[in-house]
């Protein structure tokens, strides 16, 4: 990018700014980097409105997982403010009935004091199989969960369950778009990323090898390289 542009990063479910920490040094050369706060509201419309109220007039936008759902809502509300879009380990589809049932169970358990147990269960599905015994990565997932807290986790799940189907909006995304996924994402399979990239005009699809759902943490170098190429496009 010849002219510096503010970069707005939106974390995923139960994730905090820590998820982007490994890639921020590669990004800040292209403009000031901000991580959005996505824990204060329980519906996508309100989350996006609050983020937009706090964001620069025009910015490049990257969202991971739930952050991608929020990015779609930002694109619905203010597409003219987004110069570039990156959708990471996310999908355009709404929840399936099975996913909704699972999230309702997580809400009940979080309210009952089982938040830590939920984070442990999420970790097992988040990371590449060879990293399931990585104590440092597990601790980081717990630290991010503590940053968010159980009350905000419940709000996030509520917002996710109520999100709209974004597949019909893919065709009118006109800004340069990166769709990034990984080869072993068991949370949001990369087939859904392929679907998104196929529906967005000119989108570039990048699939990170030897990686699970937490691409910026598990494979920071190739993730940063993909994001830098997107910023330069």
Structural write-up:
This protein is an alpha/beta fold and 233 residues long. The protein has one domain: Alpha/Beta hydrolase fold, catalytic domain (Rossmann fold, 3-Layer(aba) Sandwich). It contains ten helices and six strands, in the order E-H-E-H-E-H-E-H-H-H-H-E-H-E-H-H. Strands 2-1-3-4-5-6 form a six-stranded parallel β-sheet, with helices on both faces. It is globular and about 50 Å long. The model has no long low-confidence stretch (mean pLDDT 96).
Radius of gyration using CA atoms only: 16 Å
CATH class identity: Alpha Beta
**DSSP helical segment count:** 10
Overall domain count: 1
**Cα end-to-end separation:** 7 Å
CATH topology title:
Rossmann fold
CATH architecture descriptor: 3-Layer(aba) Sandwich
Widest sheet: strand ordering: 2-1-3-4-5-6
Assembly state (oligomeric): single chain
CATH superfamily: Alpha/Beta hydrolase fold, catalytic domain
Find the structural class using helix and strand composition: alpha/beta
Give the number of DSSP strands.
Answer: 6
Query: What is the percentage of strand-forming residues?
Result: 5-15%
Element-level helix/strand string = EHEHEHEHHHHEHEHH
* Apparent shape: globular
Q: What level of helicity do the residues show?
A: 40-55%
